[in-house]
Design brief:
Blueprint: E1 3-7, E2 65-71, E3 106-112, E4 115-120, H1 122-135, H2 142-145, E5 147-151, E6 159-166, E7 172-177, E8 187-188, E9 200-201, H3 202-211, E10 229-233, H4 248-260, E11 266-270, H5 281-300, E12 314-318, H6 320-334, H7 372-375, H8 402-421, H9 434-452, E13 469-473
Parallel strand pairs: 4-7, 4-10, 8-9, 10-11, 11-12
Antiparallel strand pairs: 1-13, 2-3, 5-6, 6-7
Length: about 475
């Protein structure tokens, strides 16, 4: 049984993987194999409206989410960092390996009629805004139309607590800031939009449900599910004081609340990443343990054939940690650390990781010092260093440079959701055997992660080749 990322055009998949330059993808042990491609020609003018999609030949497209890859100079779609609060524009260029054609040199546009909510800390806010840049049209006034709640901290720029947008294709996105793991104990009546809050309010949830989806002008809590999907990010260390406190039970409670409170039938969980707040190798081991836990929860989740409006039916894993780790490891190698870039070896993220803890001298009690391998374009050679020439991976050792990571993140989310919602009737309907359904979706999920969450170049013909991509299990 094979998953497919179908493309609308007259050519077959070709792999552009170069073994010498680009190692194979991380967790999955083997190189990406070319998949089978659909030979359906897209009527390009209908991309913005899924209700009118039709094709002159081939099987009918039954889909709810699709996406395109564009050259960076294509002004018809937004720059991936257009809504980003942190700029990396003046930082040093990426290493030659990361700048290889098809790796990070494209942007993405998304069209969907799905409603989704992103939940998490300030990093989740960044990623939600990156997705919005792919799903909204150019010249859209994001600040006026989408940003709903903000706060200021230490006299710095505004931090976003909540956003809500109607996006290309008729769907919608929302973001809710939450610095803890979603739980019933942290749910209060009025949402607290302030630094460090781990509480979340039913008033904000009600506002989301009343306003989504604005096209039919009906409060969503009166007509069934509000959000088709929730994209959850477990907060970074710092907000979570001890990584050992992240348990299977807490993650499952957050998943169930996404269904019960927000109406989500599908949940995507991003794997955790390295950051400044990883202070010890023990912390790093704990993060890898949580990521394994996330994968196990998803694999063991019982697919529900009942269309219960309060239950989550699918959990998908986005291997975001694999993507960011490969970037950090590759940069570390480039600036002179002794790092093995054989990402095909099982457990590579846990081997010889002391380089991650080579940091600047700490100068602020409010922030942990930066990992040089994560933020530096060149390795400092002196002692007691406090800075370096920064790269275009991370501006501060905690957040990510949206123009660099945003496109692959957005394509990954669109691809994963297609595994559930695309195809005739999708995979949320009752099937004769949920085992076959689950296996097919898992193969699709793996292929999406192999295509977009390692540093493997995408096919050159995908970028501005008149190609629309969508995933679906077969």
């Amino acid at each position: 049984m094979a998953a497919s990322i179908f493309i609308y055009y007259y050519f077959q998949f070709k792999t552009s993987l170069t073994n010498e330059l680009m190692p194979s993808s991380g967790r999955l042990k083997e190189e990406i194999r070319p998949g089978r491609a659909s030979t359906i020609k897209l009527q390009l003018q209908h991309f913005n409206d899924f209700s009118n999609l039709s094709y002159p030949s081939g099987p009918s497209y039954h889909g709810r989410i699709a996406f395109r890859l564009h050259n960076l100079d294509d002004m018809a779609v937004n720059p991936p960092g257009i809504y980003a609060p942190l700029s990396c524009e003046d930082n040093a260029d990426l290493t030659s390996t990361l700048a290889h054609k098809g790796v990070l040199d494209f942007k993405v546009s998304v069209s969907t009629d799905l409603n989704m909510i992103f939940i998490g800390d300030s990093i989740a806010s960044q990623l939600a805004q990156a997705f919005d840049s792919a799903a909204l049209e150019p010249h859209y006034d994001y600040e006026s139309n989408s940003v709903k709640h903000t706060f200021s901290y230490m006299s710095k720029s505004k931090h976003i607590c909540a956003t809500q947008s109607t996006i290309r294709g008729g769907g919608g996105t929302a973001y809710m800031r939450n610095n803890g793991i979603l739980s019933s104990n942290s749910m209060i009546r009025r949402h607290q939009c302030k630094q460090g809050s781990t509480l979340w309010g039913t008033d904000l949830v009600a506002s989301f449900l009343d306003n989504h989806h604005p096209i039919d002008e009906q409060p969503r809590r009166n007509v069934g599910r509000s959000f088709n999907a929730a994209i959850l990010k477990i907060p970074a260390l710092g907000w979570i004081k001890d990584i050992r406190s992240v348990t299977k039970e807490r993650i499952m409670e957050a998943i169930n609340l996404a269904g019960k409170i927000f109406g989500a039938e599908t949940v995507i969980i991003s794997t955790l990443t390295f950051s400044n707040n990883v202070q010890t190798i023990s912390d790093w081991v704990g993060i890898r343990r949580v990521n394994d836990m996330i994968r196990q929860i998803a694999r063991n989740w019982d697919f529900s054939q009942r269309n219960d409006l309060s239950s989550v039916r699918w959990i998908l894993v986005q291997e975001f940690g694999n993507f960011t780790n490969q970037m950090i490891w590759t940069n570390a190698k480039h600036i002179g650390y002794d790092v093995d870039l054989n990402f095909s070896v099982n457990g590579w993220e846990g081997v010889n990781t002391d380089f991650l803890l080579d940091r600047f001298e700490q100068v602020s009690k409010f922030h942990f010092s930066h990992s040089k391998a994560m933020v530096c374009a060149e390795r400092p050679s002196g002692t007691n260093e406090q800075s370096c020439e920064y790269n275009k991976i991370s501006p501060d050792g905690m957040h990510w440079c949206s123009p660099t990571l945003g496109p692959r993140y957005s394509a990954s989310v669109a691809c994963l959701l297609g595994c559930v919602y695309n195809g005739e009737l999708g995979y949320l309907v009752e099937r004769e055997t949920s085992n076959i359904t689950n296996k097919s979706v898992r193969v699709c999920e793996d292929e999406c992660n192999q295509r977009f969450m390692p540093l493997v170049p995408v096919d050159n013909e995908w970028i501005d080749g008149g190609v629309t991509l969508y995933s679906r299990p077969t």
